[in-house]
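Weekly modeling sync, notes
Attendees: S.R. (lead), two postdocs, one rotation student

Agenda item 3: backlog of single-chain predictions. S.R. asked that every request posted to the team notebook include the full sequence so nobody has to chase files. The rotation student volunteered to paste the first one in as an example of the format we agreed on. Action items at the bottom.

Example entry:
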Amino acid sequence: MEKIRSQITDHRSQLSEREVLKGLIGKPYLAGGRGPQAFDCLGLHMEIQLRAGIECPEIATPEDPAEWEALFIETLHNHYCKWQRPMPWCPVVFRFRDVDGDRQMHWHLGTVLPDTRKMITTTQDAKSHICTIHNNPLWTATLEGYYRYMP
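Predicted structure, as returned to the notebook:
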């Protein structure tokens, strides 16, 4: 298993940012979107991983936010390992409360870029874009962690 993991890590680190992100910047947000015309945050991450030769597990997108959260957490814990620091192409996960202040937690993710200070993400109010992780108060206040998919 360790040999497989190191091969995946080596392969991902050799990919050029331009080659992986080609055609992804500026794609519109669509809840449950898996491309190629529109993505949600998970769909965008899955497309980037696929371009890196890694097929990540799909997470259904039910209407009920609590059901989606449970599926997201289950997938995160069953298929990903938490890392102490950002690694190129790994998911960066954010957790925050709804703006209405309800008790429901909401999850979001981006994909760390090779320089490890930036990520690509998409949100309901923005097309897919590159932004810094640590200079944005929203992201720094809600950072849950960095993860790595482990087949």
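Discussion: group reviewed the output briefly. Residues 1-10 have pLDDT under 50 and may be disordered.
Action items: rotation student to repeat for the remaining queue; S.R. to check formatting next week.
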